[in-house]
Amino acid sequence: MRIVEIREHSIPISRHADPALPSGGLTTSAVALLTDVVRDGRPVVGYGFASMGRYAQGGLIRERFAPRLLRARDADLVSPDGRNIDPFRAWTLMMAGEKRGGHGERCVAVGTLDMALWDAAAKIAGLPLARLLADRLGRQPEPAVRVYAGGGYYYPRDDTSRLAEELQRMLRLGYTHAKIKIGSAPVAQDLRRLEAALKVMPGPEHLAVDAMNAYGVEAALSAASALAPYGLWWFEDVCAPLDFQTQSAVAAAYPGRLAAGEALFSADEARLLDLYGGLRRQRDVLVFDPVHCYGLTGFLEIVDVLEARGWPRTSFWPHGGHLFALHVASALGLGGAEVNPFCFAPFGGLHDDGRVQQGRAAPPDTPGIGWERKANAWALFTDLTP
Ligand code: MG
Fold it and tell me: Looking at the annotation, which residues are catalytic?
């Protein structure tokens, strides 16, 4: 059982439904991992991508992490029962010789390949990823995961009316909760977009705001005091990811729920956030991205570390907004998952026949992650393996 080839592309990806709107040249990596295992007469291929919001990792994938997988012998890769590739063992091979700390974005490169390894393993097992992963962890997957619609980026023109339109479309799709962006405009302008959004949503407890790590301490505290009276669902990414001083000052001042962790990538950093970020374990939300945190091995370590420190598993609402995160939330019994119905095409959102019902969605029930059931993503992946 071997990985015979790994193909990788860097591709542009947009935060907007209309990719013509500027998105800072954002890219992501898509990978195809070809195995020598045959199912239904064809070699099994696992597909993965680098999740949203950080740039493509082609150099690290090609030069460092893919070669370690390609050099692996059968005995190094195989699962305990000898019948599958073991993504946990493959992860250890990828990280061979890597020193601790200095996470940079190698965690994203490793997470990209990790997603493809899990897709391949679930296809070899003939199981949806949520089921395979839950089996490995001795759990039952949640059949329908709580989800919310992420989006609400600034529009260069007609911002508030287009934002309201976007939220209306989310509600029509069955989402009950949504998250919009703030922090890149003066507070008064952000409050105007917030109020436009609240006119659409069923109530303030259905709307979260995400400042995308924009604020220093003074701006964070003044935004927190402006937002507090609204009673929002949560206030996310308040300040720079390692600015625990500002994070804890806001936690002391802001009575509502905070969300953090999206741009922290290791269990060591998660522990520091818990020690020094002032977050409240029974109230606040953790948005670590299971791809950006070195893939599932790293993400599971974060869940373990924070659970041991008193965080309920339902505090985790992973960032990403794609099918992989949905499987992970289902398998681990997390609080819920972000879904990006309109932005980050072709990877954002559910599979084509996926439906949101009363704010919940089920991951695809076909073997693997289910990219085959998302035509726009599938077209891109099959470019790698014509
Ligand atoms: Mg965020």
Answer: 181, 319
Preceding omega of 346 cis (within 30 degrees of 0): yes
Q: Which residue has the tokens 């029509």?
A: 172
Per-residue pLDDT, 44: 97
What distance in angstroms lies between residue 233's CA and the mean position of ligand 1's atoms? 14
Q: What residues are neighbours of ligand 1 (ion), with CB under 5 Å?
A: 210, 236-237, 262
pLDDT per residue as tens digits for the range 22-68? 788 999 999 999 999 999 999 999 999 999 999 999 999 999 999 99
**Torsional sign, CA 370, 375, 376, 380:** positive
Cα 235 to ligand 1 centroid, rounded to whole Å: 9
Rounded Cα distance, 245 and 257, in Å? 18
Helix ranges (DSSP H) in 236-361: 244-253, 267-276, 295-308, 323-332
Instruction: For 69-138, give the DSSP string.
Output: HHT--HHHHB-TTSSSB-HHHHHHHHTTTPPSS--TTHHHHHHHHHHHHHHHHHHHHTSBHHHHHHHHTT
292 alpha carbon to ligand 1 midpoint, in Å?
13
Tokens encoding 308: 């041991």
Q: What pLDDT score does 225 carry? A: 98
Q: Which two tokens stand for residue 122?
A: 């679930």
Give the model confidence (pLDDT) of 165-183 as tens digits. 999 999 999 999 999 999 9
CA distance 288 to 320: 9
Ligand 1 centroid vs 224 CA: distance in angstroms? 16
pLDDT at 23: 80
Q: How many CB atoms lie within 10 A of CB 43?
A: 14
Q: What is the pLDDT of residues 274-333, one digit of tens each?
A: 999 999 999 999 999 999 999 999 999 999 999 999 999 999 999 999 999 999 999 999
